[in-house]
From TrEMBL:
InterPro entries: GntR_C, TF_FadR/GntR_C, Tscrpt_reg_HTH_GntR, WH-like_DNA-bd_sf, WH_DNA-bd_sf. Keywords: DNA-binding, Transcription, Transcription regulation. PANTHER family: TRANSCRIPTIONAL REGULATOR, GNTR FAMILY (PTHR43537), UXU OPERON TRANSCRIPTIONAL REGULATOR (PTHR43537:SF5). It comes from Allokutzneria albata (Kibdelosporangium albatum). One of its GO terms (molecular function) is DNA-binding transcription factor activity. It holds the Pfam family GntR. This is Transcriptional regulator, GntR family. Residues 9-75 form the HTH gntR-type domain.
Length: 221
């Protein structure tokens, strides 16, 4: 496992991102005892950011506190299915509210995200593609304008970012960019049932790809 010392200003967020990624990729295996001092030393940070990161990871369900400290819970196949079920419920409501905006809807967030995805796909930039992908889906919440729904999505977005990071490497991203463009077009058509059906197919495909990649990683470990 390769870790890099963190020396930037937002140490807590950077540490959280790295720990989350290591857990999602399985490089910190389920059951691993996460000792504050060990983490602080390995990442060259104080214990304050470590405690903050572990608290957030527990909220996200990736670690759990036991009698003898904090241990990695990991991300199981069942977890992924449940996460995507939750995401589908949130995003379906966001799309309903987006369509309900009617002529008042500003489609710029979707248009800009699709343009960025196409550009990233052409340059095979997996990191840029993942960021644009998540911004695209966030666009439905932004257009819909329900701040509580947006807050619920933002709580889970970092975990989905970590998951996407391991599935977009070494694959042609152009078809996925066009899938997003198609979803945007269906939503803009105003057909609620068609939009929700397209979203379900879209998220089911994403979930299936991620489950396959993580299963392969577990088998190889």
């Amino acid at each position: 496992m390769i870790v890099n010392p963190l020396r930037q200003s937002s140490l807590g967020e950077l540490l959280l991102d790295q720990l989350r990624a290591l857990i999602v990729r399985g490089e910190l295996a389920a059951g691993t005892h996460l000792v504050e001092g060990w983490i602080a030393e390995r990442f060259d940070v104080s214990r304050g950011p470590v405690r903050d990161a572990l608290r957030q990871l527990e909220i996200e369900g990736l670690v759990e506190t036991r009698r003898r400290g904090v241990h990695v819970r990991g991300l199981s196949d069942t977890d992924l299915v449940e996460l995507y079920s939750l995401r589908g419920a949130l995003e379906s409501l966001a799309i309903r509210e987006t369509i309900a905006r009617g002529d008042d809807a500003d489609w710029t967030p979707l248009e800009e995200a699709v343009a960025r995805m196409r550009k990233a796909a052409e340059s095979a930039s997996a990191a840029d593609f993942a960021a644009a992908d998540l911004d695209f889906h966030t666009g439905f919440y932004v257009i819909g304008g329900n701040r509580w729904l947006t807050a619920a999505w933002e709580l889970h977005r970092p975990l989905f970012a970590a998951v996407l990071d391991i599935t977009n490497t070494d694959r042609d991203l152009r078809p996925i960019a066009e899938d997003h463009a198609e979803l945007a077009a269906v939503v803009r058509s105003g057909d609620v049932e068609a939009a929700l059906s397209t979203l379900t197919t879209h998220l089911d495909g994403s979930c299936a790809r991620i489950r396959t990649v993580l299963a392969e990683r577990r088998s190889a470990s």
